User: What shape does this take?
Amino acid sequence: MAIVKQSGYYPLTENSAVELARSLGFFDENEELLCSEIGDGNLNYVFRIGSRLYEKSVIIKQALPYAKVVGESMPLTLKRAQIESCALKKFSEFTPESVPQVLYTDEELAVTVMEDLSDYKILRKGLIEGEAYPLLPKHVGTYLAKTLFFTSDFGLNGKEKKELVGRFINPELCKITEDLVFTDPFYDHDSNNFEEELREKVEALWNDHVVRLEAGKLKRKFLTQADALLHGDLHTGSIFVKKDDTKIIDPEFAFYGPIGFDIGQFFANILLNSLSRPKEDHAGRLKIITETWNVFSSEFTELWLAHNQETYSTTAGYLDHILGEIFEDSIGFAGCEIIRRTVGLSHVADLDGIEDQTKRLKAKTEAIDLGRRLILQRKVIKGPEQLALY
Ligand code: SR1
Ligand code: MG
Assistant: This one.
């Protein structure tokens, strides 16, 4: 069957994705190709296209004009594909080993062609299966330090930084986070989604004025504090792992926001996994958080000492103040993310996948308590070791 070349935006199918890959010269004209749609995220199509034995392969990711997880009733800008590929390219300037290589982008089709990472596994899946990744904290901590330092006012001059802020204005995707992470779970909102057995617990959360006040303060930071170019959605589904390597994927939520947000989302999703595990696994999960923070803070410090462009950077106490603020924010943001993944829209398989209802409800109850504690106590929690689950 002849493929008619379409113009403008059209959603790809497995056939048209193959044709696109061929027309872009990734494969020979007559090469027999295989293709499957492997996207398991909330928003996009992801096609894997390869030669018969996948000796050669690429990924074609296409943004849909709506959120796949909700359906066509939730329209979503296609511009996010461009944001994602620009963010991947920007991050690769500082840490090329941490992100997939972008091979081609098409703004109109909302398509990014990327290096195929099918020999990696999504971290969330690996953690649920009980696998260990000893190099994960080193890789994630380094990625965080480099991307967050080098896109901040400490790593860039004022003009360069402001140009980047402008390039990464991402209002539609930020609005999703503003609503789903920072607002809806703290109100009786339609988008919330929780098991009826948790209603009493959730209503107590909605009626807790102090939690709501602190969540409001954290939301304001997210709205206003343009510290650095964030990934913006750094949960364990945005990280690909294998034993000796880690890749950070999917930065379509990238924008200039508070440095603690990426760190907090990562902490939150490790803690959510921990809550789903037997007690004997908790220390290992806490170690991921502790080591990631230690790597982040020591690498951020090295970059600060070697490359800081801010006159005040040599003032005694300034670096400690900044690191203290980043840590405090990351704990508060982690609290919001934990609550959202338990009572809001877009849950995590770590908790929802617990088959035994009693155990699942217990884990979710503990998640709500933990989220509350992190939001309320973020100023007194001084180190990651204090995040130990009871
Ligand atoms: C409607 S989108 C739901 C969630 O999926 C993404 O991964 C983000 O976490 C977003 O909040
Ligand atoms: Mg994603």
Notes: Residues 41, 233, 238, 250 surround magnesium ion (ligand 2) (CB under 6 Å). The longest strand covers residues 44-51. The two ends are 62 Å apart (CA to CA). The longest helix spans residues 282-307.
